[in-house]
Amino acid sequence: MRKEKLLAVMLFLSLVAENDTVLAYYHEMWTPARLFEWFTVPLPIKLNVFQMALVLMLLIYRRKSPAAKPIARAIWVSMASLLFCVLYGLARGGVLKPIYTQVSAWLTCLVFALTAMTTLTTVEDFRRLENAIVWAGVWRSCMAAIFYMKVRGRDWTTMPPHMTTHEDTVLFVVALIVLVSRAIELRTRSSLRTLFVSAPLILIAIQVNNRRLAWASLVAGLLVLYFMLPAKSKVTRKVNRSLLRISPVLVLYVAIGWGRPEKIFKPLQSFSSMGGGQVDNSTKARDNENLSLITMIREQPLFGTGLGHEWNELDATYTVPISVFPLYHYCPHNSVLALLAFCGGVGVAGLWMIIPVSVFLNARTYRRSPNAAERSVALVGIVEVVVYLNQAYGDMGAMGVTHIGPATILGAGIACAAKLSVSSGAWPSPTTGRASVHPNHERS
Questions:
Q1: I want to staple 141 with a disulfide (CB 3.0 to 4.6 A). Which of 205, 274, 334, 377 is the partner?
Q2: What is the pTM of this model?
């Protein structure tokens, strides 16, 4: 198997492999993905097979191909910043054992990005990665729908609140955005047919998985697609006409459904609850976490406490018992505030410098490339950042050994920015120091 296809297969397996600690249906419904649990379960050496395979590929395929230098430099700055935050935390009395849980997801993101930059060269290689994400999203959507049909007759007090996992939010949304982006940019019968067949299934999975972050991420991703469209292109005019036609229906839907409990209005419930309309114990617990982390940030804004430290809980009323989650005080739900508390502003600037750099280069690729496939992949790379940050802020998207899926998907977008920005002529090649010149083209 060629290395490009191998990396896509590895990505697919990492996204669908089932783990009994995160899947609601693990003990109630068998699926073939159970056979790949070994691929993502940490071994006694802490790493899992997927992570070790990425490192092995990175060492074997060291042949350099043109990639944007800012991405490579930002990755090494991120790794150096991570090492500093670890050593700084240990020097201040931090505990070594939980550090792996705090850094595993982000390290996986960086290593996957480097591996993809080393092994992939063409836009078709990155489309294979997108195909892996789409197929994984469709698979998990099927499993979510099947499990929901299996348990829907239960009493709500015993029915699982979610059908799959937290991180499947990123998988579902990115898979759907890939299909929408291809339909917009390629406008082929195949891309439209795939969108019309797969989108309803993924939307059903988002609905039954009961994660309000998913609807927020989906709307944010669609807004990114819309505002990145060239203002005077034919597709933009078509989109505007379509939005104008359905706007009365959307207004009526919002007017009737805002604040109502029926399932058909679940997307609206997600946004209304974010605005403070619904205050339950879960919301109070998250508010307590956020306030505690903000207090820590105010006390040590530059360098934080260092990794390996607990966050200081202001109110223990809603704490999670150690028997339920031993590392709760090392990995709070809000990963963004947690990193600011542990690493400080300086540490987070170094860790996440790669994020704005990748968005900038993907945006240049989208604006300057004459290739519709390159534009589609670059556009998805921007959305992956938005969805990842939303997940990191709302639900442990950047920490935890079982949360490598969102980080790996982000790593694919980072690698795309490094490679396609050069191949499209949007950024100078490191070998020639000059950007490719493409003839002017009209975005229709």
A1: 205
A2: 0.91
